[in-house]
């Protein structure tokens, strides 16, 4: 096999190397703050690599949710916790290293058994025109395997309400800066529309409800960071957070009661059903993540 | 280049596993778990590229998307628990 | 006429969880939806007794490998019934429990309770590997939150430990699915079983999946998270965790070994390793249970031991296609009897702690004198755990014994008998305390009726269902 390193391959190598190094730095660093920073870099590079691997929708979700929001959560932790990192016993490190090495060899052997095949891809593309959307990933996400997404929306709703149930009274951290106040107030309407646009874009191109929702959450959090309260009643925010799970379940139930089957959209109604579901996921993801930040309703 | 990414994914998995076992700090272990997740996701996405069709396989993409949301949810719970624990210790 | 749709079993509890957040009619909503979900589960079970073929449903109308499949066959219908029964009685108990203490947690409890029910139904119905991953996450994350519910430091620590191990296990499971998908290109279990018949590559993927399921079901040596987690939380949550949440991974293991994996020499070695771990779980779990001085930890270690039964039988899953019906019956009944009995015991322990305000065995109220219902609850459920005759536990262990003798695994049968003896050694101290006539142990505090009755009925059901096992297990092997 000829090993030809073209320009694109050099890019792959560089990205991969940077990814690995940022992961190492994040894990190895003694200071938890540095670990957090390197983790955000790692997430960002992950997203870039996935764009290289032709997975732009997933890259978007990773950069927004996996890198930015997870990084935000970890910084909350680093700020609030003691920064201790004791060295583990040598014995632990020895057998952990041994096990890791074994797994490496094991997985390398497994790699030799993987072949290039079509898997489910061809089926998806064949049925794409029946799904109601033009984007393949969103067709899988909201139609072919929509049931997974229903449970997933459930998981994120559950996590945030679990957070609330712990009853941690957090002092809302805010930065009393007129520049921030003004900027967040100006940008919020734009962010609302932009996130809505990204959600709508998911129907025929790269985008989707989770990405849009997380973006909107970012805008809301920025607004709250400046110390301002959202001009919405607490009960409205409550309803918004449950909207995703509620609407999705109700639509699934509705189609079951009507005789089509659970979560089975009739062909003509599939696009509109998916759009309604996407909107509900958009608004609930935004307010759920905002609630996770603000810690109270 | 596919094999390069597969090996990268496996390397991510094992270094994060090593650090998960070895680290004494909750934050480090949480980061290690997230990096482990990213390794598994990279494995999936590389598999998606490993097809004969023109565009990559959208099914692993959807699976990874779900996986990321689930991982963020779990991280949120973990962060909340750790904060609660630290608060109690004060 | 509304046709029966498997989606109802999942969507109904999901909607219930959302509606239950609306106060103040929370309790009525909880009661109404619990009854509805219970009736739906009973209907599904009776449905499986009717037909001869399993009910497959492809969500969205897309057949696998494109879509996700739900399957209602004898085994899953039976477990749906089990989930329904335990959940209903825990719900009745909780209505009263959160009325008298932990009122703040009672606001959110119902949300998690119904979410758990939805996740359990989703798990037992699904036949898609990734869907099982998401359902497993639903269960694990809800369980983590339930463990942390009381809010004191011990619970949070146990919950955090549980969470970390749970995420690790989920990531391993996901890795296993990734490997299987890379090799075979399908996620549906039935399609996978067809593709696996001649190949060997699945062995690689089996390792992370087995480790993941072992961590999740607290098999030795991954059992360390269970005793703190199940004992640090409120009684209804402990009941749900020990009786229901711990079972799905073992169920998945059964499905994989009996329906998906083909015959292969290396699988035989793996089955031997798993059965050794199961035997060790029985011994070590029982040993620690005997040594415990507090009720809840005792029951938690007992769960570790009882789960060992399910793993010591792995060679039987592997070798036992000829006796497939018997294997399924034994497994199902063991899970069923343990679920009802353990839930009843945890609920009764909640009663004990309510009266005595303490967890230690030596402070346990003399229930035989003051609260006979609770004593009988403990008696019936304890007897089922040990496997005394007439109880469902006895029939389960008898079936296992019969199976192991027929297939020539005498050692396994012997260990299971020993396990019953060990179980009696840790159940007996509980009974002993009930009869204690020490004056300070007569607590006058009356236990709320609903709490007592629900615990008692569950225990009684655990015991008496031994007499109707014929009816219960009739449809198990269908499909």
Automatic annotation (TrEMBL), chain A:
UniProt protein name: DUF4040 domain-containing protein
Transmembrane in keyword set: yes
Alphabetized UniProt keyword annotations: Cell membrane, Membrane, Transmembrane, Transmembrane helix
Topology term for the membrane: Multi-pass membrane protein
Membrane-crossing segments per the record: 12-29, 36-53, 59-78, 90-109, 150-168, 188-206, 212-230, 237-263, 269-293
Family designation: Belongs to the CPA3 antiporters (TC 2.A.63) subunit B family.
Cell location: Cell membrane
Cellular component terms per the entry's GO annotation: plasma membrane
Automatic annotation (TrEMBL), chain B:
Primary site of residence: membrane
Coiled-coil blocks: none
Keywords associated with the record: Membrane, Transmembrane, Transmembrane helix
Annotated compartments: Membrane
Gene Ontology CC: one annotated term: membrane
Topology term for the membrane: Multi-pass membrane protein
Family matches, as InterPro entries: CPA3_antiporter_subunitC, NUOK/Mnh_C1-like
Domain of life the protein comes from: Bacteria
Signal peptide interval: none
Regions that span the bilayer: 6-23, 30-48, 60-85
Family in the record: Belongs to the CPA3 antiporters (TC 2.A.63) subunit C family.
Family matches, as PANTHER family: ANTIPORTER SUBUNIT MNHC2-RELATED (PTHR34583), MULTISUBUNIT SODIUM_HYDROGEN ANTIPORTER, MNHC SUBUNIT (PTHR34583:SF3)
Protein name (database record): Na+/H+ antiporter subunit C
UniProt organism field: Hydrogenobacter sp
Automatic annotation (TrEMBL), chain C:
Subcellular localization: Cell membrane; Membrane
Residue ranges annotated for the NADH:quinone oxidoreductase/Mrp antiporter transmembrane domain, each copy included: 126-416
GO terms, molecular function: NADH dehydrogenase (ubiquinone) activity
Membrane topology summary: Multi-pass membrane protein
Pfam families: Proton_antipo_M (PF00361), Proton_antipo_N (PF00662)
Protein's recorded name: Oxidoreductase
Classification via InterPro entries: CPA3_Na-H_Antiporter_D, NADH_UbQ_OxRdtase, ND/Mrp_TM, Proton_antipo_N
Ranges annotated as spanning the membrane: 6-22, 27-46, 75-96, 108-126, 132-150, 162-182, 202-226, 238-257, 269-289, 298-318, 373-395, 407-431, 451-473
Chain ranges of the NADH-Ubiquinone oxidoreductase (complex I) chain 5 N-terminal domain: 66-109
Keyword vocabulary terms for this entry: Cell membrane, Membrane, Transmembrane, Transmembrane helix
Family per record: Belongs to the CPA3 antiporters (TC 2.A.63) subunit D family.
Main location: membrane
GO cellular component, one term: plasma membrane
């Amino acid at each position: 096999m000829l090993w030809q390193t073209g320009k694109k391959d050099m890019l792959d190598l560089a990205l991969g190397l940077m990814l690995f190094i940022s992961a190492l730095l994040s894990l190895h660093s003694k200071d938890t703050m540095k670990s957090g920073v390197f983790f955000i870099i790692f997430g960002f590079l992950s997203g870039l690599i996935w764009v290289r691997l032709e997975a732009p929708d997933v890259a978007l979700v990773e950069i927004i949710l996996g890198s930015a929001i997870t990084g935000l959560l970890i910084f909350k932790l680093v700020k609030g916790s003691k920064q201790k990192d004791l060295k583990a016993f040598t014995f632990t490190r020895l057998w952990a290293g041994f096990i890791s090495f074994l797994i490496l060899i094991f997985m390398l052997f497994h790699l030799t058994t993987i072949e290039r095949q079509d898997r489910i891809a061809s089926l998806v593309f064949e049925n794409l025109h029946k799904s109601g959307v033009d984007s393949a990933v969103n067709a899988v996400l909201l139609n072919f395997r929509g049931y997974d997404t229903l449970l997933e929306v459930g998981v994120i709703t559950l996590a945030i309400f679990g957070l609330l149930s712990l009853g941690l009274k957090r002092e809302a951290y805010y930065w009393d800066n007129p520049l921030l106040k003004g900027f967040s107030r100006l940008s919020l309407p734009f962010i609302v529309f932009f996130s809505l646009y990204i959600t709508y874009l998911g129907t025929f191109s790269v985008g989707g409800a989770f990405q849009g929702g997380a973006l909107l959450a970012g805008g809301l959090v920025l607004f709250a960071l400046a110390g301002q309260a959202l001009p919405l009643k607490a009960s409205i925010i409550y309803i918004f957070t449950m909207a995703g799970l509620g609407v999705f379940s109700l639509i699934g139930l509705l189609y079951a009661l009507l005789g089509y089957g659970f979560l089975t959209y009739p062909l003509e109604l599939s696009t509109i059903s998916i759009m309604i579901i996407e909107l509900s996921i958009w608004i609930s993801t935004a307010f759920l993540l905002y609630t996770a930040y603000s810690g109270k309703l | 280049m596919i094999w390069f990414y597969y090996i990268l994914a496996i390397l991510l998995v094992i270094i994060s596993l090593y650090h998960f076992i070895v680290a004494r700090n909750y934050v480090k272990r949480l980061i290690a778990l997230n990096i482990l997740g990213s390794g598994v996701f990279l494995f999936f996405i590389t598999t998606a590229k490993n097809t004969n069709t023109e565009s990559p396989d959208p099914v692993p993409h959807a699976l990874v998307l779900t996986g990321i949301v689930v991982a963020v949810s779990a991280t949120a719970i973990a962060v909340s628990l750790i904060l609660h624990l630290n608060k109690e210790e004060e | 006429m509304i046709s029966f749709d498997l989606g109802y079993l999942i969507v109904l509890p999901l909607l219930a969880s959302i509606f239950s957040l609306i106060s103040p009619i929370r309790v009525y909503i909880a009661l109404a939806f619990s009854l509805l979900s219970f009736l739906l589960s009973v209907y599904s079970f009776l449905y499986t007794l009717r037909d001869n073929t399993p009910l497959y449903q492809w969500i969205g109308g897309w057949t696998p490998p494109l879509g996700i499949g739900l399957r209602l066959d004898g085994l899953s219908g039976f477990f749906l019934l089990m989930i329904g029964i335990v959940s209903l009685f825990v719900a009745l108990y909780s209505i009263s429990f959160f009325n008298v203490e932990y009122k703040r947690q009672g606001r959110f409890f119902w949300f998690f309770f119904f979410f758990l029910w939805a996740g359990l139904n989703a798990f037992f119905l699904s036949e898609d590997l990734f869907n099982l991953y998401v359902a497993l996450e639903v269960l694990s994350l809800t369980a983590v939150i339930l463990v942390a519910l009381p809010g004191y430091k011990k619970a949070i620590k146990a919950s955090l430990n549980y969470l970390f191990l749970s995420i690790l296990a989920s990531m391993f499971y996901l890795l296993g699915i990734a490997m299987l998908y890379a090799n075979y290109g399908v996620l549906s279990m039935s399609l996978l079983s067809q593709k696996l018949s001649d190949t060997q590559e699945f062995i690689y993927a089996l390792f992370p999946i087995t480790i993941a399921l072992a961590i999740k079901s607290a098999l030795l040596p991954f059992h360390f998270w269970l005793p703190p987690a199940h004992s640090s939380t409120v009684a209804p949550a402990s009941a749900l965790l020990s009786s229901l949440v711990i079972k799905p991974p073992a169920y998945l293991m059964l499905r994989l070994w009996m329906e998906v994996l083909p015959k292969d020499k290396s699988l035989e070695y793996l089955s031997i390793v798993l059965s050794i771990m199961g035997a060790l779980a029985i011994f070590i779990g029982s040993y620690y249970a005997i040594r415990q001085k507090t009720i809840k930890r005792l029951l938690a270690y007992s769960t570790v031991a009882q789960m060992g039964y399910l793993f010591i039988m792995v060679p039987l899953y592997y070798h036992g296609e000829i006796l497939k019906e018997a294997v399924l019956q034994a497994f199902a009944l063991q899970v069923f009897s343990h679920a009802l009995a353990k839930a009843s015991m945890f609920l009764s322990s909640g009663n004990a702690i309510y009266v005595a305000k303490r967890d230690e065995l030596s402070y346990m109220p003399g229930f035989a004198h003051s609260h006979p219902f609770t004593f009988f609850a403990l008696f019936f459920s304890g007897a089922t755990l040990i496997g005394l005759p007439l109880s469902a536990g006895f029939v389960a262990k008898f079936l296992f014994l019969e199976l192991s003798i027929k297939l020539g695994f005498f050692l396994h049968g012997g260990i299971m008998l020993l396990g019953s003896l060990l179980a009696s050694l840790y159940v007996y101290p509980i009974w002993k305390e009930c009869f204690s006539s020490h004056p300070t142990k007569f607590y006058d505090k009356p236990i709320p009726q609903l709490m007592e009755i629900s615990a008692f009925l569950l225990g009684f059901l655990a015991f008496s269902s031994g007499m109707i096992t014929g009816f219960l297990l009739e449809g198990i092997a269908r499909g």
